[in-house]
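dumping the sequnces here before i forget
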Amino acid sequence: MIENSENSILKTENLTIGYPQKKQDHIIFSNINLSIEKGKLISVLGKNGIGKSTLLRTLCKVQKPITGAIYFEGKELNTYSENDLSKKLSVVLTERLPESQLTIFELIALGRQPYTNWIDTLSKADLEKIETAIKQTEIGHLKNQRFYELSDGQLQRVLIARALAQDTDVIILDEPTAHLDMHQTINIFSLLQQLVKQTNKTIIVSSHEINLALKLSDEIILLTENNLQFGTTEALIAKNAFDKLFPNNLLKFNKSLQQFVINKT
Amino acid sequence: MKQKSYNKQFILLSVLLIVLFAMNISLGSVTIPFKDILNTLIGDTSVKESWQTIILNFRLPKAITAILVGSGLSVAGLLMQTLFRNPLAGPFVLGISSGASLGVALLILGSSLFGGFFLAHSVSNWSFPIAASAGAFLVLSAVIIAANRVRNTMSILIIGLMFGSLTSAVISVLAYFSEAAQIQQFLFWSFGSLGNLSWNEILVFMVIYVIGILATVAVIKPLNSLLLGENYAKSLGINVKKNRNIILLITSILTGVITAFAGPIAFVGWQCRTLLE
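..and the predicted 3d for all of it:
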């Protein structure tokens, strides 16, 4: 059923995503066949409202697929219990954290929860994982601050550290660079790229930073109207896939620069 | 859980608690030397008999009730605030304590309406807490059902307040049909009081309280992850739905038993969240 499954960690088979409704299901994309390998940085690109979050939510098992199947390490996603899955897949969401008095360390430590005992005591191994996560994201100086004292960029790093502490093979991030300035955006993206290289994790990230994503990701999932394409930046450029990303001619894709540029009129 | 240790604060507050407890017992309209109080507490019968009675049957039960009520309400407040991710949420605001009042009102006032059934049971120590817990649970479930329809936390609070008014309306109707003695009994209860509890009642109180606290300890882990919000909790492998029901059940039991014994004074539960977190 699954070819070259050695490296493939996440695979979809004739997957249809969308929202089930009484009369007729609202289908966002159908016939998705992805095979995502270990140790890759994958960007999910597409304009607002095209279904990036729907795709990510389906891959995280937050939302059920309408038809088709998702295989995680060769096993169907449905067969994972919530606790098992939490050791395989971690997330960074766009939603704001609810108000609380958590310090950064405590917030990251919560990533260890799938491994802790029933009253949440941290073992030595847990503490080590947390330290590594803090080191990898370079946020040691923030450790004892409360999370609401941080800037958006710092908070994203902390949330990424939390996902790292969860020690999963796959991390899914939903628009981690929203609200961030240019410097922080590049900062986060290069951090993700570094992490993929250092840890051989698979990171799937949805973003609107198309130019940056094209430069830094290994592969792209490109969402356009009724069409989902998957491949390396070069392969997608060769197929002229980016021409259809945005509707009007304000922006144009420049092949030699491998970037979108503003149309001069 | 935490690297930043909270031990220091915990010890400090425990010491404070003991000091206040001692003060509570030793101060009152009858002056009793501190030495005699200690002697009484350790069971020395050589102390003046009237003093013994005052301490053992009035001050001590009152002090214990105060501790149980205060900590129980704080725990209930903490549970609600974590669950609803809103520092305003608490047993009082969400109408849960009103529900408990309704339960008690039905028991006291309704006995004349419904006749023998309630009356026969109202003698037992357990009937108050059971009625109050049932009332609390009823209102809480209604709030939950409503809360599932609306996503906005603010509306949940408003719904809670609405249920609160509704229950007080029902209580008024009950009062209209009741006899003076029963109304008086209910009114005295509703003033709220930490005293007047017999040792038997305190025993019942303690049993239910301990059950509630133990159950709370069991949901520490889900509670921690809920601090990040429901979606993160889910991604950490927590069964959010199941744990939400457990948390609500604990809250209604704790609020119910406290309201039953000490009256509707649940607003105490508001403040203490940061401390417990």
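Confidence is low (pLDDT under 50) at residues 269-277 of chain B.
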